[in-house]
Design goal:
There is one protein chain. By secondary structure, the protein is of the alpha+beta class. It has three domains: 97 residues; 124 residues, no CATH class; 82 residues. 44% of the residues lie in helices and 25% in strands. The strands form two sheets. It has a seven-stranded mixed beta sheet with strand order 2-3-4-6-5-1-13. Helix 3 packs across helix 4, helix 8 packs antiparallel against helix 9 and helix 10 packs antiparallel against helix 11. The longest helix has 24 residues.
């Protein structure tokens, strides 16, 4: 698995963010975007104004969400960002003035990092870590990798108490991945992980034990922009939810069917690749939208691993996951390994026998 922060570094960053971030609820009609002139490097940037008192630079995710919520085609939106800030402002502000809804604007370090529904109820990373880490450590699990990115928090834990062999001396251990997005990019989830010790690959199986979307009661009563604080009702509801998270984590290693997953992983050695490995990886790239650099890495690890079968392709993908710069993308590739493992025989044959 790709290494991120140490636990101490993670805790310090989560605490820093907890003290720094601010959330606002505002009617769309009180939001306004203004693109600043390009600087000496040729890069312009957008400022999101909230009423008359607050303004924040628009982050990349917030740009994506503005385009999506205002139904501005992404390619056109990005072209305006690059070529005409004035036209971008005109488009955004026109459609904001016609909106009847209110939005939650989440900010951190002086940037607007998300534009969300006013019904979005934050389940914050610091709260999740405060609940999850003691449970995991008390159970004897080891945090093999953890990170907080602009998009998500990840905790990847493995227990040495549950071991299997997928080959002579080739040991895998049971694990789980806990993830959360504070900015609307996915529900909080707990997913099974198979950790292969010989190469430190992580294979994430898309079989979440628990998911929780971040939707709470509406805030339509707000007619003016205001900084958003948790009320007692939310705090009570969140407390009950975090207790559920704790209970699920406490039993995760004993209730998830790791044995069945490992057996499927072991059996994948029998799904032989009969086509040219280069063609197989090209089809994998096309089906799962791999970048060229990722395709090349997967091919290198497939040929170098010596397993020209589904098992080998899965491991090539999860090995490549350690090489990519982005921790978010690394985790996506670990999940892709699980997706390939779970492919029905007919879909696998399209790739392996082409």
């Amino acid at each position: 698995m790709k290494q991120g922060k140490t636990l101490i570094e993670l805790a310090a960053e989560l605490e820093r963010q907890k003290e720094t971030k601010r959330d606002f609820i505002s009617p769309a009609t009180q939001l306004q975007v203004k693109t600043q002139a390009a600087d000496e490097k040729g890069a312009g940037f957008s400022i999101l104004g909230l009423g008359e008192t607050e303004a924040f630079e628009v982050g990349e995710t917030a740009h994506e969400q503005i385009a999506s919520r205002l139904d501005i085609p992404k390619r056109y939106y990005e072209r305006m960002r690059k070529e005409s800030g004035f036209l971008l402002d005109q488009n955004i502000n026109h459609w904001l003035k016609s909106e009847k809804d209110s939005y939650m604007v989440r900010t951190l370090d002086g940037k607007a990092r998300a534009l969300l529904s006013s019904k979005f109820r934050p389940l914050d990373n610091a709260d999740l870590a405060e609940v999850a880490l003691p449970v995991l450590l008390q159970s004897g699990a080891q945090i093999e990798s953890c990170e907080v990115t602009e998009r998500k928090l990840y905790l990847k834990a493995v227990t040495p108490k549950i071991n299997f062999e997928v080959g002579v001396g080739d040991v895998v251990q049971a694990g789980i991945v806990i993830s959360n997005s504070e900015i609307g990019l996915g529900a909080i989830s707990i997913e099974p992980l198979i950790y292969r010790k010989v190469c430190k690959n992580g294979l994430i199986i898309n079989d979440a034990k628990m998911r929780k979307t971040h939707v709470g009661r509406g805030n339509e009563q707000f007619e003016h922009m205001m900084e958003w604080f948790r009320d007692e009702t939310r705090q009570a509801d969140d407390k009950a939810f975090w207790m559920k998270v704790r209970d699920v984590l406490s039993s995760a290693f004993s209730t998830i069917g790791f044995g069945e997953m490992v057996e499927k992983f072991r059996a994948s050695k029998g799904d032989i690749i009969t086509a040219d490995p280069v063609k197989v990886v090209e089809l994998t790239q096309k089906k799962f939208s791999l970048a060229d650099s990722e395709k090349n890495g997967v091919l290198k690890y497939l040929l170098g691993g010596g397993d020209l079968n589904r098992f080998g392709l899965v491991n090539a993908v999860t090995q490549m996951a350690q090489d990519v710069p982005s921790y978010d993308r690394s985790t996506e590739l670990e999940k892709l390994g699980g997706t390939i493992l779970e492919l029905p025989k007919t879909d696998w044959s399209v790739i392996a026998d082409a």
